[in-house]
Amino acid sequence: MDELNVQVSLYNRHRNGRYSSYKGTVGKVARNVLHQHFNETVPFKVLHTDVTQVHLADTKWAYVSAITDEASKEVLAFQVSNSPNSKLIMDTLDELTENIPEGIKPIIHSDQGWHYQLNYYTDKLSEKKFIQSMSRKGNCLDNAPIESFFHLLKTECLNGFPQCKDIGEFKEITKNYVDWFNNRRISQKTKGMTPCEYREHALAV
Predict the structure, then answer these.
(1) Element (H, E) at 180
(2) What residues does the Integrase catalytic domain cover (predicted)?
(3) Are 68 and 127 a contacting pair, CB within 8 Å?
(4) How far apart are alpha carbons 120 and 84 in whole angstroms?
(5) Which pTM was predicted?
(6) 113-146 pLDDT, tens per residue?
(7) Could you count the other beta carbons within 10 Å of the beta carbon of residue 127?
């Protein structure tokens, strides 16, 4: 698309207000453990997280923080807020710990967003014995699995950003989508199974 100078008009409106969590080095920058090797097949081994934003009809923004499983593509945590603050990030981690088996110690890969560098986040990962990994600065391909999920969310669920009237409506629509995505959406990447079916199949082998 770059070579042909082609752009997707679906995203042009949003680019004018694109959210960026990168504020430089404000805390600890973890090493990149994955190096774009997205070939994990066992669930709960490698997870991806990020934050994205969606414009609402009331001129406000909704911020989505999610965590997905690289192997099963399952959405393990999905939180929505009107602010990309520490509570949004910690609520996401809390939801994750409720949805994974006890004693699991996955790699959690993110970009270099400011919230992923600060002590409240890194200390929580250390407490849970999760392994932190970060993308290189300004390289979205280093975290392609979560970027792919956000793309599907915005195209399949929001259908080109139809503006939800407020954050309450946005939460309801996206909650239903995540349930459908995990339990009904099949994919070649998960051998024709849903993410939850793939997880159960892979763990039973």
Answers:
(1) helix 167-183
(2) 39-203
(3) no
(4) 14
(5) 0.89
(6) 999 999 999 999 999 999 999 999 989 999 999 9
(7) 9
